[in-house]
Amino acid sequence: MHDHHENTKRRRSAPLLWGSGAIAAALLILGVSGTLSTWTTALVHNDVNTTSAQGAVALSESSGGATCVDTATTTTNEATCSTINKYGGSVLDPDGVNSATATVQMTNTGTATGDLTLDADACSTSGGATTSTSNLCDYVQVTVTCDGTVKYGPATLSAFAAAGPATIGTLTPSAATSCTLVVTLPSGSPAGVSGQTALQQLNWTLTKV
């Protein structure tokens, strides 16, 4: 009789043990899955963290729709255009065709507004008579006109170098200006400059404002 009673108790308590085990397992799963882990772990997320680069100017030079250089593609924001001869490269005759013209477009390819200037390095010559005391740089004159307004000249190439930067205008991002340079060898220039070639570097500078 006693054994029967004990067996009955064990049979009645077995479902309770199984139930308790199932609950414990469920709690363990919930803890692992994160439902209860919020009790022991706190998190703060920062989802909007940004930084930006300051706006900069950049300058491109083109002619006839073809871009020669764009400083925005360089690491120094500086470039040299060697394929557009702003003085035309023509042979000038003071008694005939005595002028040459070249037109370029300068575009602000940056993200900031800038002031554009143009200046010239010292003019040098090569060729001609070795005994000549005349210098072609002192006779060839240059005039710079941008968007229909004369920005510099007419003045000799030597004077252009000494004058310092000529103000071209202000360029907002993506804005462009069309500049025409005309060089002229005036009639009456001395024969001593015949056969000479003048060379002068021009510098376009866009400065952020």
Output the keywords.
209 residues; alpha+beta; 2 domains; 6-stranded antiparallel beta sheet; 3-stranded antiparallel beta sheet; 2 helices; 11 strands; elongated
Strand line-up in the sheet with most strands: 2-1-3-9-6-7
* Gyration radius, in Å: 40 Å
Low-confidence stretches: none
Protein structure class: alpha+beta
Number of domains: 2
- The averaged pLDDT comes out at 90
Strand content: 25-35%
* Helix percentage range: 10-25%
**Oligomeric state of shown chains:** single chain
Ordered list of secondary-structure elements with their pairings:
Elements: H1 2-33, E1 59-63, E2 66-70, E3 99-108, E4 114-120, E5 124-127, E6 141-146, E7 149-156, H2 157-163, E8 166-171, E9 176-184, E10 196-199, E11 202-208
Task: Please characterize this protein's 3D structure.
This protein is an alpha+beta fold and 209 residues long. It folds into two domains: 2-39; 59-208. It is built from two helices and eleven strands; from the N terminus they run H-E-E-E-E-E-E-E-H-E-E-E-E. The protein has a six-stranded antiparallel sheet. The chain has a three-stranded antiparallel sheet with strand order 8-4-11. A two-stranded antiparallel sheet has the order 5-10. The longest helix has 32 residues, at 2-33. The chain is elongated. The model has no long low-confidence stretch (mean pLDDT 90).
